[in-house]
Amino acid sequence: MRDIKSLHHKGFTLIEMAVVLVIVGILLGSFIGTLTSRINVTKKSDALSELEEIKQSMMAHAFVNGYLPCPDCDAVAGACTAALVGDGIADHDVGNNRCILDEASGNVPWVTLGLGRGDSWGSHYRYAVQNEYADSDTLFSLSTITVDPFSINEPNFVADATGATPHSLADNVVAIILSHGSNGYGAINVDNIANPAIPAANLDELENTDNDADYYMRPETSAETTIAGKEFDDIVIWISEYELKAKMVEAGKLP
After folding, report:
1. Contact partners, residue 192, CB within 8 Å, separation at least 6
2. 74, 86 in Cβ contact below 8 A?
3. Domain residues of the chain, as ranges?
4. Which residues 6+ apart lie within 8 Å of 112 measured at CB?
5. In 3D, which of 87, 125, 84 has the Cα closest to residue 101?
6. CB 12 within 8 A of CB 20
7. 3-class SS at 122?
8. pLDDT digits over 24-81, tens only?
9. Nearest alpha carbon to residue 54 among 111, 94, 11, 93
10. E strand residue ranges, the chain
């Protein structure tokens, strides 16, 4: 006669099953976290590559035309009508050959440059330029100087605002190109709809949308940081006066 005990198959106890589920949960959470982190790193790398591509396209535009393109209007104001906003075309004022109403900040004119319309997070790239370098009538020359750093809407200065006193990274800046990063605060998405406003505590990100001459670029920080500027994930590059002129001389476009 068979031993009755041998007919009983031992299964998992509730405690054992709970332990297994916890281990699976930890492994799954670690995998998802790693995957998310890798996706974010890839998107940032793609955005930086695209910013560099935009910069080179703008330099090429200057080589061919003798001036940098104006931004594409990003909001209805004055001569920036609804028909012009977000169409990807550089908006020059036909009357004075400069950017419309001297509004030298807006979207990157992706159609004019033949590029993609947005960054890795579905927002338009932001662009600001000094009008002296975007004038299609009076072309800039080696003697053209950058404007007063407090001129409205025109970039001139980039700082690292990691502390109470910003450190200068560059001055004599004639153009700024930036992505508002993964949080997208203050950006306009590719459907021409404004993203959520920048939180008041994010002082450094606010500096990049107030249309003055100063822009900030610093390492990324989360909303929980103790740094005075709080959360920051903007990706910023620029074209300096001397870089642009040197490239133009090298290309034989300036004496």
Report:
1. 85, 86
2. yes
3. 11-250
4. 61, 69, 72, 88, 89, 90
5. 84
6. yes
7. coil
8. 877 777 666 676 777 888 999 999 999 999 999 999 999 999 999 999 999 888 888 8
9. 111
10. 105-107, 126-129, 157-160, 167-170, 173-179, 214-216, 235-240
